[in-house]
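W.,

You were right to be curious about this one. When I first looked at the sequence I had no strong expectations either way, so I just let the prediction run and decided to look at it fresh. Below is the sequence, 340 residues in total, followed by the output.
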Amino acid sequence: MKILIDLYHIPQFNFFKNTILNLDKDEVDLCCINRGRLVKIIQKECPGYNLIVLGDYKHNKGRFSMLFRIMIPRVYALHRMIRRNKYDFVITAHYQANLAAKLNRIPNIALIDDPRKIAFDIDKFSTNELYIPCFSNDIPKTRKFNALKEWAYLSPKYFKPNPEILHVYSLKPKEYIFIREVDTSTSNYLSQDKDIILQQAEKISELPQKIVLSLEKKINKPLYPADWIILEEPVSDIHSLMYYSKLVISSGDSMAREGSMLGVQSIYCGEREMPANHVLIEKGMLTKVLPEKLIDSCREILINDKQFMDQDKFRIKLEKDWEDVTNFLINKIKMYTKQI
């Protein structure tokens, strides 16, 4: 048996991490693109696994270069690699390796929480099964799983917060705000305003809590307030840092959802409209705001924090309501590789 898991950015790696660690190193190949800290994080978290790097985000200078210097060449490279290695099964959380697998007549599935038209239509054409979270609207040629993707690594079964990470940054529980600023040059955020957090940095600094910033575009580090703690990824336990924060703010949707699933009140100040976000908005743990309303929302949440559900009770409730996504993935792999 030989499986290929293709990973396009860090949230996708997090999604598959526990599944990967349940597979023998000689039965799975990992593939990724050179993008931000992705390669280093995979190497650190999955030592000894065969990692193939195809494509480089350094060529991303806009829509044209992204299409013709990254996406199309990468699909072609994946097609050749899959044909050469004769994989039995391919699984992803995007579309490129699925298209390459389809061209090679290799069974494959994808799990997607962002049904954007072009990539999603490619997956509907390419995959044997295409999964979306069960909370999404019914979409032809898709199936559903009963959770959000981030639950694969954040459920209490897989994630146990470790307070030791606080000592590394001289922090105290619930006395700081965790912030994520995404790089808007990636395909998901090309239409979003740049540096949303940076534009509000002066007002954010007026809040009484310390600020911990996860900054994707490190070249901008000197532009942020000097007293902010700016992380150098990969961080040994970034989700524990988020868990013990008073509030999570993110200009990217993935970390906003992560904060919510960790039971921390979270604010998403980006512009993407995703069904997955609405699940957590309806549960009262995520707020989506316009950038100009960010500070008002921060102050309102910080003042009214006693009105929200207890952090661990919220997570226990999610565990009862949602399925074990990692177990779901492992069973799918076994089914397609005829192990069950």
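Here's what jumped out at me. Residues 63-85 form the longest helix (23 residues). And, maybe more interesting for your project: The mean pLDDT is 92.

Coffee later to discuss?

I.
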